[in-house]
Amino acid sequence: MQNAELAGLKAYMADNPGAVIEDVARERKVTPRAVLEALPESMVRIGAGEFAAAMQDIAEWGEVTLIVHTDDAIFEFTGAIPKGEVGRGYFNLMQPKGLHGHLRHERCSSIAFVERPFMGKVSAFIAFINLDGGIMFKVFVGRDEARALRGDQLARFHALADRLAPQAG
User: For the segment 58-77, what is each residue's pLDDT rounded down to a tens digit?
Assistant: First the structure.
């Protein structure tokens, strides 16, 4: 990406931090990772792709929302993320019903921890970023009855970010 393009993207994201990451990426012909990196530094931390460690931690959070956003659909699952284990080349989500499946964990190059405004509320999510700069899926911190971020999960989110994407300085 050219310096002018990067500066333009950073300016756009500073003015529109709640923009849909995938839409901005498509419109500007960049990767979703580039859009995440263009967010103000106070809103995003990106660390190594320690997929299994992140997923095992998230499995202890309780009810969250997992979103898979493709060009053709946005799938949302709200519930507890099951524990998983690595086997036969996949990270296997270990439950027979609800959310289950086989994830190509080795394609996860990095993990982004994002806190930003979205639709008039503060949101916090973890984006699992693949080798191509795309977002494999996002896991959002849950909300309580008053639609505020759950404090216990936000604390876990920050602790995981500190472990996997420590702040410079």
Answer: 999 999 999 999 989 999 99
The span from the CA of 167 to the CA of 104, in Å, is 27
Under 8 Å between Cβ of 169 and 70: no
**How far apart are alpha carbons 116 and 98 in whole angstroms?**
29
For 109-146, the pLDDT digits (tens) are 999 999 999 988 999 999 999 999 999 999 999 999 99
Please report, as a single letter, which amino acid is at residue 115: E
Count of beta carbons in the 10 Å neighbourhood of residue 11: 11
- Whole-structure pTM over 0.90, yes or no? yes
Distance separating alpha carbons of residues 141 and 63, to the nearest angstrom: 8
